[in-house]
Automatic annotation (TrEMBL):
Residues 16-332 form the Enoyl reductase (ER) domain. It comes from Aromatoleum tolulyticum. SUPFAM superfamilies: GroES-like, NAD(P)-binding Rossmann-fold domains. CDD domains: PGDH (cd05288). It comes from the Bacteria. This is Enoyl reductase (ER) domain-containing protein. Keywords: Oxidoreductase. Pfam families: ADH_N_2, ADH_zinc_N. InterPro entries: ADH-like_C, ADH_N_2, ER, GroES-like_sf, MDR_fam, NAD(P)-bd_dom_sf. Gene3D superfamilies: Medium-chain alcohol dehydrogenases, catalytic domain, NAD(P)-binding Rossmann-like Domain. GO terms for molecular function: oxidoreductase activity, acting on the CH-CH group of donors, NAD or NADP as acceptor.
Length: 343
């Protein structure tokens, strides 16, 4: 059996380019005890992958030249040497851009997924996948969100931000979304957020955010870092919480990150600022999945998706994401017959 895979051809400088990736064919090896072979149906395309394409240590190891581009995958089990998986089950795990993946018990996200027939497969890579779970855990566990607060979310039209803003609203809070275009501002207010601030449309970002939340932010859910994080620090309410989910503003220029000049405001406002990785909080995973699935099925939570079809088109989908051209969750379905929320 031959496997088609997308590997790193060269390290990108700034926004990735098509020539940084290469499609290869390799044989699928035999399974060892405990392993499962899945034929992938949907990929989750994530901005955090960009940091792994540089030769720089982070919380995940850098991809080697010729190495598989990592991502969350969802596929159908075609062969199993693991008693928890049977042929025809759906497996989810952290593997990469390829047609077939082997899951093993050491995989941080290996899961026999119980798919709800009322929910399209693509949702399990987005709002009901680790993007939505990250939003839930970030707000509930890290941000210790309570009702009646003011929550500011950056990249609020993105995969995590669009879910975080809706969850905060569903929990009874005032929500302000920070975005980068007029269209994205319309999207977040259409999702029910109370206000949208377009950071590209103002010369006074701090003033625009302050006008949207004059009492300060109790929680800032940060997906971008950089200038927006620096601007938010003086705008936090006393004892506010900053949930550090991502630093997308620095992903394309990690060697020269934006300098934070207002860090002393952590002391002024007695701010708690904490980064997190969602998979390190399994104690809240079932609660997150149950809540999000219920909201999707009831129509209370709208899952934004932009869908690309075909393994060979995966690099282009990633490039659009890293160029800021997308809204919601970027997913790749490998075949036309995979149902998505946008179908």
């Amino acid at each position: 059996m031959l496997n088609r895979r997308v590997v790193l051809n060269s390290r990108p400088t700034g926004v990735p380019m098509p020539e940084n990736f290469r499609l290869v064919e390799e044989p699928v090896r035999e399974l060892a005890d405990g392993e499962v072979l899945i034929e992938n149906k949907v990929f989750a395309i994530d901005p955090a992958t960009r940091g792994m394409l540089d030769d720089r240590e982070s919380y995940m190891k850098p991809v080697e030249i010729g190495g598989l581009i990592p991502t969350m995958v969802l596929g159908r089990v075609v062969k199993s040497r693991n008693p928890a998986f049977r042929e025809g089950d759906y497996g989810r795990g952290y593997v990469g851009w390829e047609r077939y993946s082997i899951l093993d018990p050491s995989n941080i996200a290996m899961e026999n997924l119980r798919v709800d027939p009322q929910i399209p497969l693509s949702a399990y890579m987005g709002a009901l996948g680790w993007s939505g779970i990250t939003a839930y855990i970030g707000l509930q566990k890290i941000g210790e969100m309570r009702s009646g607060e003011t929550v500011v979310v950056s990249a609020a039209a993105g995969a995590v931000g669009s879910v975080a803003g809706q969850i905060a609203k569903l929990r009874g809070n005032r929500v302000v979304g920070i975005v980068g275009s007029v269209d994205k501002a319309d999207i977040v207010t259409g999702l029910g957020m109370d206000a949208a601030v377009n950071y590209r449309a103002t010369d006074d970002l701090a003033g625009a955010i302050r006008a949207a939340c004059p009492g300060g932010a109790n929680i800032y859910f940060d997906n971008v870092g950089g200038r927006v994080l620096d601007t938010m620090l003086p705008l936090m309410a006393d004892f506010g919480r900053i949930v550090v989910c991502g630093m997308v503003a620095n992903y394309n220029n990690a060697g020269d990150p934006y300098p934070l000049r207002n860090l002393w405001q952590v002391l002024v406002h007695r701010i708690t600022m904490r980064g997190f990785l969602a998979f390190e909080h399994p104690e809240i995973l079932a609660e997150a999945e149950e809540s999000i699935a219920g909201w999707i099925k009831s129509g209370q939570l709208k899952a934004l998706e932009n869908v690309t079809t075909g393994l060979e088109n995966t690099p282009a989908a990633f490039i659009r994401l890293m160029s800021g051209e997308t809204t919601g969750k970027t997913v790749v379905r490998l075949d036309d017959d995979v149902a998505t929320l946008g179908a």
